[in-house]
Amino acid sequence: MSRADRIRGEMERLFEEAMRIHEKDPDLADRYAELAWRIKLKHRVDLPPRWKGSVCRKCHSFMVPGSSSRVRVRRGMVVTRCLRCGDTRRYVID
Ligand SMILES: [Zn+2]
Fold first, then answer.
1. In the chain, fewer beta carbons within 10 Å around the N or the C end?
2. What pLDDT was estimated at residue 17?
3. CATH for 22
4. 18 alpha carbon to ligand 1 midpoint, in Å?
5. What is the DSSP letter of 63?
6. 15 alpha carbon to ligand 1 midpoint, in Å?
7. Could you tell me the distance, in angstroms and rounded to a whole number, from the CA of residue 84 to the centre of ligand 1?
8. How many Cβ atoms sit within 10 Å of the Cβ of residue 56?
9. Alpha carbon of 37 to ligand 1 centroid (Å)
10. Average pLDDT value for residue range 35-47
11. Which residue range forms the structural domain that includes residue 75?
């Protein structure tokens, strides 16, 4: 297992835990997301692909569609909005 795989495994655990507790304790979920983001910056390893859209790029809170974020599809773009800081991102659908 490579170093990047090990680090991504660590992030994976943080996101799974964040997902498990975000309804009960959204602040704790945000802390897990922020921690994963810091690991990404520190080790320069990308987030696991399935969690890529789960951290707000601005405030680093945990984004769950329908709960802490809004997701809309518009003209071939996915538009996500963080409900904590209001940051909006657009992604091209591939
Ligand atoms: Zn945000």
1. C
2. 98
3. 1.20.5.420
4. 16
5. P
6. 16
7. 5
8. 25
9. 13
10. 96
11. 3-92
Its pTM stands at: 0.88
Number of structural domains (the chain) is 1
Pull the structure tokens for residue 38: 């810091």
Distance 73 CA to ligand 1 centre (A): 19
Residue 41, amino acid: L
- When pLDDT is averaged across residues 33-50 and rounded to a whole number, the result is 96
Distance CA 13, CA 5 (A): 12
For residue 53, the tally of other CB atoms under 10 A from its CB is 17
- Binning pLDDT at 50, 70 and 90, where does residue 93 land? confident
Helix (H, G, I), strand (E, B) or coil at 52: helix
Q: H-type helices in 1-94, by residue range?
A: 3-21, 26-43
Q: Is the pLDDT score of 94 beyond 70?
A: no
pLDDT at 91: 86
Q: How far is the CA of 30 from the centre of ligand 1 (A)?
A: 10
Whether 51 and 11 have beta carbons less than 8 Å apart is answered as yes
What's the gap in Å between 1 CA and the centre of ligand 1?
33
